[in-house]
Write a structure and sequence with these properties.
93 residues, mainly alpha, elongated
């Protein structure tokens, strides 16, 4: 999270002087962290289900694990795409 944003939030000050891109990046970083955590927990739960021979439960947890991975990849791709700026803004004839 950008230093300016952290200082504003901790001090109870207005965050109006913090640019919107910094806020967006901080929110996305928090979401990524939560998704990473969920993916790790799903992997552990899946391993536990396999150890207990709960095959259908293990299958469902594996599907959830893959879904979180897909979400992370899509968010990463969108972040890369939004950072690419066009070289010119004019129309091409």
């Amino acid at each position: 999270m950008p230093k300016q944003l952290l200082q504003a939030l901790r001090g109870g000050k207005s965050v109006h002087n913090v640019d919107r891109q910094s806020v967006k990046e901080a929110v996305e970083a928090g979401r990524n962290a939560r998704l990473d955590y969920m993916q790790g927990m799903l992997r552990e739960l899946r391993d536990m289900a396999v150890a207990e021979r709960c095959t259908f439960l293990a299958y469902q947890l594996e599907i959830a694990y893959m879904e979180v991975g897909d979400l992370l990849r899509a968010q990463h791709a969108a972040a890369l795409q939004s950072k690419k700026k066009p070289e010119h803004c004019g129309t091409v004839a």
